[in-house]
Amino acid sequence: MEKENKKVSFSGIQPSGDLTIGNYLGAIKNWVSMQKDYESFYCIVDLHAITVRQDPKELRSRTLKNLAIYIASGLDPVKNTLFIKSHVPAHSEAAWLLNCFSYTGELGRMTQFKDKSQKIGESVSVGLFTYPVLMAADILLYNTNVVPVGNDQKQHVELSRDIAIRFNNLYGQTFVVPEPLIAGSGARIMDLQNPEKKMSKSVENPNAYILILDSPNIIRKKINRAVTDDYAEVRYTEDQPGISNLINILSTITNVSQEDIVKRYEGLGYAGFKSDVAEALVEELAPVQNRIKELLDDKSYLEKIYSESAEKANYIANKTLRKMQKKIGLVLR
Ligand code: ATP
Ligand code: LTN
Known about the structure:
Layout: E1 7-13, H1 21-34, E2 38-44, H2 46-49, H3 56-72, E3 80-84, H4 90-99, H5 104-108, H6 111-120, H7 126-140, E4 146-149, H8 154-171, E5 179-182, H9 216-225, H10 241-254, H11 258-264, H12 271-296, H13 299-328
Parallel strand pairs: 1-2, 2-3, 4-5
Helix pairs in contact: 3-12, 4-7, 4-13, 7-8, 9-12, 10-12
Bound molecules: adenosine-5'-triphosphate and L-tryptophanamide.
């Protein structure tokens, strides 16, 4: 009974590369803190990942690895529905329907599309263009109230709102209009080599990101090599983006405010600060890494989780899909 009154939370991560501390601090940790208060659906969005070319073997193994990461990070697979998107065909079908209510103009304005298509050039897929419509389908199928994502996804959630409102205006109340829920300082972890850009799992240079599964020594090396500046003072200012990023990482892990961190390192230079950031990360990630390895050794457990979750997700998604089909005027059988 109590469960039914809870608001619904929905989010997802693409298995397009190994997950970084950007995904962990900006998304997953936030989901974990919400699990008591929301009815939650967290998806591995394999159908979004194939908007750019993926190696089939790697895609398959990363999809399972991501499920293990969700669970190892503290998401209870009983309280939360943790599923693989391609196991719920209603997403693809709802996306087609919503494509017919989305405008090329608004999709062309999406920053992520502009950035990625610029990198890819001529052979950019149609899927990459309509990516935000598939995301709107994901969200709207579950009567989602909140979408916990990093700052970079805010524009996509806003588009989902616009599509929902447009459909509701045409056909009467059908969709819940979702709100983005952006995490605090973890909302935007920046690239360690180019702190003007967000940390991303699909960039070439491995020194730019830290993976959830990086070993302690690799973490230490990457933090040590992180780009800083010549001020030699730990300050949280716009002209020190590298140091500010490391402050944000430390703040998100330790729950100590940026101001208090700045005070703590006053007059101390960068070496000790960097080493504390690295040790905080190592300590935070060690238990998660151990649990991931255990889970990956127990494939039948992972299989059980994704199968049961898919059943629940299919039930809810199909209900909304039928509602959409009926309102549009398709003949239901
Ligand atoms: P890709 O590089 O393949 O485009 P990504 O690393 O940006 O992917 P996504 O799968 O697009 O990751 O994002 C999953 C979730 O992680 C989203 O909620 C996104 O906002 C969040 N996220 C990704 N990178 C960061 C980051 N650097 N800082 C904070 N949150 C992030
Ligand atoms: N585009 C998102 C991943 C994603 C998502 C969603 C997030 C796909 N579907 C639904 C929230 C809700 C990204 O983070 N790159």
